[in-house]
Amino acid sequence: MKTKSTPMVFALAIAFSAPAFASKTASEVQAKPASPEAPLAAVTVFGEKIGSANVGRSYLDHEDIERQQAGNVAALLDTLPGVDLSGTSRPSGQTLNIWGFNKVQDVKVIVDGAPKGFEKYRQGSIFIEPELIKQIEVNKGPHTSLYGNGGFGGVITIETKDAKDLLLGDANLGTLLKYSYQSNNTEQDATAAIFGRSEDRRFDGLVYFTQRESDDLRKPNGDLFRFSAIDAPSSLAKLNIRLTEDQLLTLTAMQSRSSAWAPFAALGEDAPAPTEAEINKFGWDEAWKRKVLYRDQEDTTYSAKWRFNPSPLINMQASYGYSKTNQHDQRSASASVGSFLGSLGNESWATYTDKLAELRNESMFSSGPFAHVLSVGTQWHDNQRDTLMYYPSSVALKNSTYNFGYFQPYYMPAGQQKTQGVYVQDAVSYGDVTLTAALRYDHITAEGVPNRALRYNSPLAAAGHDYSEARFEGFSPRLGLFWKANSNLSLFADISQTWRAPTIDELYSSEYYVSSDVHSSTPGTSRALDVERITAARLGAMWNQQGLLSANDDAQLRFTLYQNRVADNIGPRLGVLVPGYSFDSRDKLPPALSNYRNLSGFKTEGLEIESFYNTRYFFANASLSMQYGRRNGSQRDPWGEDQPVASIAPDKLIMGLGFKLPEQGITAGWQGKFVGEQDKVLAVGNVYRLPPSKGYGLHTLFASWQGRGDVLRGLEARLTIDNVFNRDYQPYLSEGVTGVGRNYKISVSKIF
Question: Has residue 527 got a pLDDT over 80?
Fold first, then answer.
């Protein structure tokens, strides 16, 4: 690990010389008592019970989420090894990177059974209010059969809060009021909720509302991170119905909105400052607004989940999830009218809709000396996107090949993709050894929507504008081995092969073709694309020890080594367009050359170490992740020299120390995040290049107090201080954008 940060070296020394850190004690991993004197939670765990079912998984529970007081889900997950935030701190400007995979289709996000997949060009992908979340599970790598078509980086499963999580003791009705404040951007958040359950416990439900509102964030040097202000209301309604002793029906509705002036690329750089001449002509406020746009966004999620568990042979779940994200962008009336063809014009509309229906069953039985956990399931997923932009240039408004200014962005086409999948998995145990074999089959159809503009939807064969249906199908086998060597040590190994079909963007993006004299060198859609394929392997060990240093402590340690080999990866056709291509031979290119192509593949590999230690009064944790990636050829020239994978995150060490006073309801501690430098980057001038980054260390302090006794019961106060030393830093995956300065976060809540 390369770094110039002394704290980084010191932290590493502690991490590998100290005893293994661990998580909750045995008593704390049981159901939490309703008494206000319940033990205080410690830190994130990688599994309350070590077994084959939670290999490769990391968790954030309610206490982890509340402690961070984060403004977005990506910031929460950035504290886990192998999971890194991409993008910026600007609202709606985050995506996730797991093990070097950062495309939306490579990191699946499921909220209460509903898929969340927003793939709009240069925008974030996760718009979930952290205040509504109860827990998060991250299953890293492509090693689960539950979801098909992609997910090479992993699957993130988010569960929202329930009434039972908030009710005090035996109460059947309650309300929550909460106020939060953040100093960096003078953010003020208000939350109110009402929740309850019936006397017979058959029904419980809640209605939850929260509002975030702030000014712009400030960088460590005091400068404004312009157009990062927040105005975002969110709401959640949830109902649980126990139809019978064996059946539970859960209905969820969630919505979030945001409206603000923002740069077109929420993921990227600051808005360019206006010139003095522009300020003199338009005034200060309008001169700045001409550089950005007004974005109105709405994100809606509905889900229904039915569970039926009458016997070990029948543990059935049927679910339906619906997710829809609308984004409407409009530039100032004084903005240029011919400068934004490549950034969605002067006004744009984008709607992404996902529907997911699923039926699965898990059976537990024995056959002679073998114990089985047999899972079977089927899924139907419909992904649909509608896009439109208004490009009012003087040429477009008078030109029928531009449809007089209204057409789909050629790099963000509209279309629909449907997936049907079935899978079977059997975890067979013999003594202390479990062998898990799984096979999944997926069938996918995709169809584009012909562009309204004829220059991107030409009937001429030389254009290659084909928006017709494409079909893909294939199997995904997986094999896992888990051995409980003794009462404390377990070893595991997994190998998986799977694939993903090209997205709507990859299949149906096109460039212009007006005539043989007026056309792009790569005008065609990419209907001939093959699927991306991955072969992934991981192995490691998990160790757990209770009573390590004292009678009631608990220690856990996990090592994981992994490797991912991707073949036929999909990328835009840039640079060297065909073998032997040179600028002088550009006129000899084949006609209808596709916009996207399959590339030569790449490899990523890495190491993760996670450790936790917990006692009644003390807790500590440390996790280290190290990644490496190499591409066969390059994204611009598949036949050229090998290059680094640009999305590989720097080495990252997360450490934490803290104490608890259960009788007084007090928890306090420190968390350090130490990131190594990243100098394995692409050459200057490469369109995929991220600038190199220096190593840095960030420190966070946190404290919480929960009221005790009848009078103070349900009262809670929290303090979190991020970037305590106001360190100036530039995260590598933020494309060189400076991070956020010191931030005091305070919250006070009361349950009545």
Answer: yes
